[in-house]
Amino acid sequence: MKRKVLTAICIGAVLATSGCNSSADTEEDTTVAVGAEENRDEGDTAPETAPSSEIDGTTETEESGTGSNGDVLVAYFSWADNAILEDDVDAVSSPSVIPPGNVQQLAGWVQEETGGDLFTIRVTDPYPSDWDACLERANQERGEDARPELQERVENLDDYDTVFLGYPNWWYGVPMPLLTFLEENDLSDKQVYLFCSHGTGGLAQSVELITEAAPGAVISDNIFDCYEEDASSSREDIQEWVAGIGY
Ligand SMILES: Cc1cc2nc3c(=O)[nH]c(=O)nc-3n(C[C@H](O)[C@H](O)[C@H](O)COP(=O)(O)O)c2cc1C
């Protein structure tokens, strides 16, 4: 639809947000990206995206194996875990819907490095696997400030002191199910580290929205963010970020 137009609009943001960053060492880049996003028309203009590549990833809630670090939860939302994949889905126009999703891959690598438990945030009513249809529903949910129903809550949330929370930028913010997750799973007093994959829009308003939905959480400003086309090659970068935090 309007993706080409947006490419032009967002060229500055591309320069600011391409590649993978952690705010610890690229604070200025992130600030530029947020600023650029704020200046964009937030009407019905479709957000920008680009293809991701494929590797295998984990999608189930699971206990990690040997070396499990019981107090770490790695929770994430990814389109590929939240869509019914139709046989005729177009991998070019609907890129990251084909597993593994970008955030799904990042989450798997965070889990590897932390030894924590992986939790995929899943809605009861999956999104369309067609790009335009998914955009439309996501935009409608955003307009309604909806809280899409989730399949499950985190069991034994009290066991976790630290939560790594991964998400894609959806419509200059977060997928609305992420807000459902934050409202149903109280992260108060837990240390939260955010990681995000996005198109040319960067983090946009996502951190503000998360902070508002989880007022008691201790959200670090050391955030890992990754341009969508770089997600599949970001294993080393995100694991370095996790190691830098102390895992
Ligand atoms: C419904 C929808 C809305 C999106 N909105 C934005 C946006 O506003 N800005 C942006 O930079 N990227 C946007 N994107 C692109 C995704 O953030 C990006 O492709 C991300 O890497 C997808 O991660 P995933 O594969 O784990 O879902 C959007 C993608 C979808 C499906």
Protein architecture, described:
- There is one protein chain.
- Helix 2 runs antiparallel to helix 3 and helix 4 crosses helix 8.
- The chain contains 8 helices and 7 strands, in the order H-H-E-H-E-H-E-H-E-H-E-H-E-E-H.
- By secondary structure, the chain is of the alpha/beta class.
- The longest helix is centred in the middle third of the chain and has 14 residues.
- It is globular.
- The protein has one domain: Flavodoxin domain (Rossmann fold).
- The protein is 33% helix and 13% strand.
- Strands 1, 2, 3, 4, 5, 6 and 7 form a 7-stranded mixed sheet that branches.
- The site of flavin mononucleotide (FMN) has 27 residues, from helix 4, helix 5 and strand 5.
Brief characterization of the structure:
By secondary structure, the chain is α/β, with parallel strands linked by helices. It contains eight helices and seven strands; from the N terminus they run ααβαβαβαβαβαββα. It is globular and about 45 Å long.
SSE series: HHEHEHEHEHEHEEH
Q: Please tell me the overall pLDDT.
A: 80
Overall form:
globular
Number of helices: 8
Rg measurement, Å = 17 Å
* Second CATH tier, the architecture: 3-Layer(aba) Sandwich
CATH topology: Rossmann fold
Helix content: 25-40%
CATH superfamily: Flavodoxin domain
Give the count of structural domains.
1
Described by strand count, sense and barrel closure, the largest sheet is: 7 strands, mixed
Bound molecules: flavin mononucleotide
Uncertain ranges: 1-18, 25-44, 49-68
CATH uppermost class: Alpha Beta
By DSSP, the count of extended strands is: 7
Structural class: alpha/beta
Distance between the termini: 42 Å
